[in-house]
Amino acid sequence: MSHTIISCAVTGSIHTPSMSPSLPVTPEQIAEQAVAAAEAGAAIIHLHARDPQTGRPSPDPALFRVPVEALRERTDAIINISTGGSAEMSVEQRLAPARHWAPELASLNMGSMNFVFTAAARRVEHWQHDWEEPYVLGSADRIFANTFAQIEYTLAELGALGTRFEFECYDVGHLYTLAHFADRGLVQPPFWIQTIFGILGGIGAHQENLTHMVRIADRLFGADYVMSSFAAGRHQMDFMTAAALNGGHVRVGLEDNLMIARGEPAADNAQQVAKAARILRELGREIATPAQARERLALRSGDRGAVAGRSS
Ligand code: KMH
Ligand code: ZN
Questions:
Q1: Ligand 1: residue whose CA is nearest its atom 9
Q2: Which residues pair with 78 in a beta bridge?
Q3: pTM to 2 decimals?
């Protein structure tokens, strides 16, 4: 059995600073948590950036410098930069960080959708920043746009840098969208598919849905894909376990869940990675090193830094 790849998404666009003091905000905080997550067993680190003053999701490539350099200097982890950014950003803004840093991996969201996270506001009694509450509640009236033209543009722009993709699939139709791009020869196997459950607007966090997604991926891609899965929110760890039992890979991180157990806030990202690694080992799985993940996903490996050597 191949080793299980753990990804960690350390910050992101769903949660805001008022929801948890553990959520990393400044480039230095993001760097420290990213390095600790890698040391705890995450082979892949998925990065977003935030305005250090307000914590608002930011597409500024300069804000990625400290985390990217820390990961490159202090770990062997695979860097995966978001092209999802936030639904408020233009496509050009969303592509700017990956264009600048040419990471080995970038996320690529496989369909336009409702992406509603208003429930995340429930536990907040006091908002620290003016933007937070309207931003969170506004998710009920925003479309997360990922049109076929935008997907094709992203594939061309970042593919030219040698970046490969984490195909984020929030519903079964997104697998068919990926198959469409595969049929046109615009994406190359092995396809690294991240199936996402429990986002309001996407497929729900029921384990039958995971089984179905795996069955359809088998039908569409045969041996040409590698699947990872996660559920947003409280189903994070049971879905992580179910994904591993199905032979899949897993993603955790404060980007999608702020808790370490029911009612217990996570101290940081590394705590979630360590818990996932512990459960996986108890199930008899071995945790993939970055080198093993690179080989499995056919990433750039040897020329790491040659394309992506920009320093500012
Ligand atoms: N937090 C995930 C549900 C991206 O960065 O491209 C969405 C995500 C999108 O990771
Ligand atoms: Zn993300």
A1: 84
A2: 44
A3: 0.96
